[in-house]
Amino acid sequence: MRSVGLAGKPNAGKSTFFSAATLAEADIANYPFTTIDPNRGVSHVRTDCPCLDRDERCGSERCHDGKRYVPVELLDVAGLVPGAHEGRGLGNQFLDALSTADVVCNVVDASGGTNAEGEPIETGEYDPIEDLAFVERELDLWLADIVSRNWEGLERGSRAPDFDFDAALAELLIDVGASRGEAAATLRNVEYPSDPGAWDESDTEALASELRARTLPIVVVANKADVAPDGNLKRLREEANHVVPATAEGELALRRASTAGVVAYDPGDSDFEVVGEITPEQERGLDRVRDVMAEWGGTGVQEAMNVAVYDLLDYVTVYPVENETRWTDGQGTTLPDAFLLSRGSTPEDLAYAVHSDIGEGYLHAIDARSGRRVSDSHELDEGDVIKVVSTAK
Which runs of E-coded beta strand occur in 306-390? Predict the structure, then answer.
């Protein structure tokens, strides 16, 4: 399962975002370090289900009338403070946990109502722009420190006559957590001394920054945007490439109301319908949430998850089936499973994602939409429905 990490300073709303996106209980309080151990839960990305192209909707419990919800892991790491890479505020522990994610949502308090340490102040007194570079910088320096701690072994190896510095450096990055492709791309895009003994702190930090950008891409969640002063969202969008205005509190209220049968709402919808009895106070609260949704097209929580997975990671959703005519599995359930794969993945990659035995026995694949066999090099696309033919059952 793909993993999305939540990062940011304390009291920015990460735990509220986590609770809203997973409906799992998380400690939420108005003070730093509410979260000590990482919260792990299951959230979803939303996409159009292929059943929309058929006469009937599919039988998956994760399909809501053609809105398909694909599970991803959500990891809520405790708030980071300046100096986290040096261990301040248990920062190394939190950064180590965050490194297991595929992509990061940097939850920023767009209202400016918390200072750099996450302590509550008057709304608008703090510039949220400061929180953009802060998380990137802490991650970069944390990675740079890991590289530095492994540098001595690389220098010792360089004394051998047949030493290949580029290959050794690539292996070091792989040990840090990069794939071979990410390591190679990182080294292509960074200028560095060919002698490991000539490296200084700036070289290591430049390497770490490039590596982090490739292994931990970041989407900015401009949380508390419903109470943010005029201009804050505009400035955040000018400073960062991927910024999603959000109200995690509004999303949490809607999901709880939906669970209670008070409103009809699917995560990611641009509006909701009141279907149960509510008090005047609840009505006022829901009206405030509706005003926010009207401005941004939703609460922003589902959009942030989608931007992280579909835009930054560039994943596609593919649906394996056993019967290519009916689009069903062996029990007759229509489109029961959905897999998130990197763009460029092939049918054989899908086979391995389903099960290693299916991958090892892979023979060929059929595009269920056309009923035709596809080549082994065929690149899967969003919404593809594929039958994998394998010797394994």
Answer: 315-321, 339-342, 362-367, 372-374, 384-390
Residue among 110, 90, 144 nearest 239 (CA): 110
Task: Looking at the structure, tell me whether residues 42 and 158 fall in a common domain.
Answer: no
- The per-residue DSSP string of 214-254 comes to HHS-EEEEEETGGGPPTTHHHHHHHH-SSEEE--HHHHHHH
Give the pLDDT means over successive 10-residue stretches in the chain (393 positions). 89 93 64 56 97 89 95 85 52 64 93 90 89 84 85 87 91 88 94 90 93 92 92 93 95 95 96 95 92 94 98 97 94 94 97 97 97 97 98 87
Give CA torsion, residues 362, 363, 368, 374, to 10 deg. Answer: 110
- 100 and 154 assigned to the same domain: no
CATH of the domain at 180: 1.10.8.470
What is d(CA 208, CA 344) in angstroms, rounded to the nearest whole number?
Answer: 26
Number of domains in the chain: 3
Domain extent at residue 263: 3-126+217-309
Q: Do 194 and 97 fall within a single domain?
A: no
